[in-house]
UniProtKB/TrEMBL annotation:
Belongs to the YciI family. It comes from the Bacteria. Residues 1-111 form the YCII-related domain. InterPro entries: Dimeric_a/b-barrel (IPR011008), YCII (IPR005545). It holds the Pfam family YCII. This is YciI family protein. PANTHER family: BLL7171 PROTEIN, BLL7171 PROTEIN-RELATED.
Length: 125
């Protein structure tokens, strides 16, 4: 089963973490990543740029239209995401709880319903 783990935050929040604690958490997160990458359960791990660097893209009459954004009403936004492939929901929850950042904030855990890259039954593309 695949799951997406998501961490939310903002630049102000990250900048308020004392440098020593931030270094410690990053080292702990690197170790978490290495542990679960080695087990084959962590498929991907990404940290995102600040929301001010994001854009919104729409299709208007077949042409891409890009604007600055998103314009968020929430103070915190998606800043890191992790893709897991685990045996069960319990295992995904266990891994999320072991994330170093889970000591400060909740980690959002979403089951993945559809895998667009999975082989089709019967071998079709």
């Amino acid at each position: 089963m695949k799951y997406l783990l998501m961490i939310y935050g903002n630049k102000e929040k990250w900048d308020s973490i004392p440098a020593e604690l931030l270094e410690k958490r990053i080292a702990e997160q690197d170790a978490w990543n290495a542990r679960y990458r080695a087990s084959g359960e962590l498929l991907a791990a990404y940290g995102l740029h600040d929301a001010k660097d994001a854009s919104l893209v729409r299709n208007q009459d077949g042409a891409p239209i890009s604007t600055d954004g998103p314009y968020l009403e929430a103070k915190e936004y998606l800043c890191s995401l992790y893709l897991l492939d685990v045996e069960s929901a319990d295992r995904a929850r266990e891994m999320a709880a072991r994330m170093p950042w889970a000591r400060e904030d909740p980690i959002e855990l979403w089951p993945i319903e559809h895998d667009g890259f999975a082989p089709k039954p019967g071998g079709g593309a």
